[in-house]
Structure formats: C-alpha cells, structure tokens
Amino acid sequence: MALPEFKYHPDPIATGAVVQSPEKCACCGQARGYVCTSTIYAEEDVEYICPWCVADGSAAKKFEGTFVDDYPLIEAGLDEIIIKEVCERTPCYISWQQEHWETHCNDACEFHGDADIEDLKKLEGAALEKLLKENYYSQDEWKELLTCYKKGGDPAIYKFKCRKCGEVTFNMDLS
Fold first, then answer.
1. Nearest 10 degrees: CA dihedral of 44, 8, 84, 52?
2. Which of 15, 63, 94, 149 is surrounded by the fewest CB atoms within 10 Å?
3. Is 115 contained in some domain?
4. Do 15 and 73 fall within a single domain?
C-alpha cells in the first residue's frame, strides 16, 4: 500500500515522521503498517495515528486538533488554506521545544528533516546571519557548533525548502 503524499512533507519516512508499525490508528481503527511519530495537539491523548488519517484531515477533525503550531504560519501572513494543509493534513517533526514551520515566497516550505553538516558548512551571507540572529548565536559559536554537529543531536537544525523558488532555509532548536 502506497503512503499518501504530503505537499509540505515530501518524504516522511526519510525524516522519521512516519514509521512502520503494527499499531492500530486511533482515528480509523485500522492497522495499516505505518504510524506518525509526532503527536496531535488535542484535548484527548492520542497515541497512534496513521498517515492516511493525517492526509485526509480526518484525524484533525475527529480529535479537534492540529499537528503543527499555526502561529508562525499566521504571523507570516499565509492563506488559511495553506495553514490548514500544514497544520491539519501534514505530519509534523519532533523537536526539542516547539516546532516552527518555515515559510518563503508566501507559502509554507517543504520539510526535509535534519540538516546535513555539508548543508550547514555551505550556509553563508544573509541566510546564515538570519539563522544566527534568530538563535542568538555569534559567528564564533557557529564555527564551534560546526565542529561537533550531528544530525538528530542537540542542537537540532532542520532543513526546509521553498516550493516556489527552491531556496533552502533552516531553523534551530535546542533542548
């Protein structure tokens, strides 16, 4: 059975947002072989949701919840249709603190998982300055971070890609 496609999270298996599992989905009651690893922000405590119930919006509707914090998307001035797609029909990523879905070109970006060290070593100019400023890092601290950065570590640096122009952006999260 093919996984559903997610416009803003094109490879949820590679990012770890979807994993193989024999568990039954709390929304549809079926064991489809896969579940999402992130939780739904809802009043009810929901343990397992399959990617199909995320993709069609039924889990967000049934549990009156979201998978992604909408605040950054609202602040960016995105259209409500885009916000609903990301927050109610896209599996999120697990972060140390609160996830922050990047935006660019008046759209939400695609999530591509933890940044590779090669991506970070190429980061320069305005993009690097933006990341450092947002995270209160100096150039010296950044250079030190690059000597010990590991995917999936602390700090975590997440990679996003603009769906319109292809620009890659990053955000950082610390425990």
1. -50
2. 94
3. yes
4. yes
Number of domains in the chain: 2
DSSP category for residue 67: S
Helix (H), strand (E), coil (C) string for the chain: CCCCCCCCCCCHHHHCCEEECCCCCCCCCCCCCEEECCCCECCCCCCCCCHHHHHCCHHHHHHCCECCCCHHHHHCCCCHHHHHHHHHHCCCCCCCCCCCCCEECCEECEEEEECCHHHHHHCCHHHHHHHHHHCCCCHHHHHHHHHHCCCCCCCEEEEEECCCCCCEEEEEECC
pTM confidence score: 0.92
DSSP states of 8-45? T-S-HHHHTSEEE--PPPTTT----SEEESSPPBSSS-
The average confidence (pLDDT) of the chain is 94
Instruction: Name which of 114, 26, 39 is nearest 69 in CA terms.
Output: 39
Count CA atoms within 13 Å of residue 14 on its CB side. 9
Eight-state DSSP code of residue 49: -
- Residue 54's nearest CA partner among 81, 21, 84 is 84
What local confidence, expressed as pLDDT, does residue 160 receive? 96
At residue 57 the predicted structure's pLDDT band, cuts being 50, 70 and 90, is very high
How many CA atoms does the CB half-sphere of 163 hold within 13 Å?
A: 14
